[in-house]
Amino acid sequence: MKKTVFALLLFSISVLCFAQSSKYKSVDEAVEKLGPLNKFNVAVIADTITEKFADNEQKARAIYYWIANNIQLDPKGTRQNDDKNILPEKVIALRKATPLGFSFLVQEMCSAANIRCLSVDGYVKNYAAEINEPVDEKNYSWNVVQLGQSPETWFYVDAARASGYLDKKNTVFTKQFTSEYFFADRKLFNLVHYPENGAWQLGGGAKSIRDFYSLPVFNNFAFALGLGKPLPTNGYIKTSLKKPVVFSFPVNSAIDIKNISLIMGDEKKQSKPEVMNFANSGNKISFTYQFKKEDTFPLRIVADGNDILQYMVEVTE
Of 46, 77, 177, 214, which is most buried by a Cβ count within 10 Å? Predict the structure, then answer.
């Protein structure tokens, strides 16, 4: 039975990811056939993976897809925020990088393909414990790609997150390609990333680093769902045993969500998934939950087996 459920979950994920990436299906398939291109330098790889494509958007997608599928996040380098191996040729040699190394490689390959691309430094949150806990130094990097002259022709690219994810202690990398960090939805991207230089916040977003760290944590699957700004908007929820909390968030109208569950507690004291009775009206998921015990704990909202949001919850009598 467990194998059947797991197989169905994988199928639902693959169908959703296919639907989201169908626009670039031909590009992705062509790059996939080229393989890892071992023993080539950055310029040759960039030329090889982009030469079949006519426009810059397709070339940028080819670069994104190849990097995300052939370079891994470096657990030790990321954990130590180490800038030692960030240069593109070093990243290609090691086949692993910190987020800054990813962004430099994207920038270098785009430059080789005559695409204007810049590396952006800033901040991200990955776990509920980081809510309301701003860090002193920037901890992440991504890219912006320009296809035209107007502000609307700048686009977000995050090849590091597209490659997979690290565990909570930054010790183990799990490969999991995510299509939606290419030319990502601006509103959702700005809920997940905060640039050190406000000029690279394309569209609206958090007004300060403190405001950014007050938001909930958005997981990768939120992009596949086309998640909009949720309620509660604050990532730290204070409530009482007698006061139900209303949760809601807009999603992509083309996606049929079958199950919403809540998982409470950290990894060692984690509750079993509790299935919610939710409504899906006007492309907005909503449900109400009344917490049953006094405590402070992380809360994960899960859609069809995939984490989408994380909160910290403080429940008093």
Answer: 46
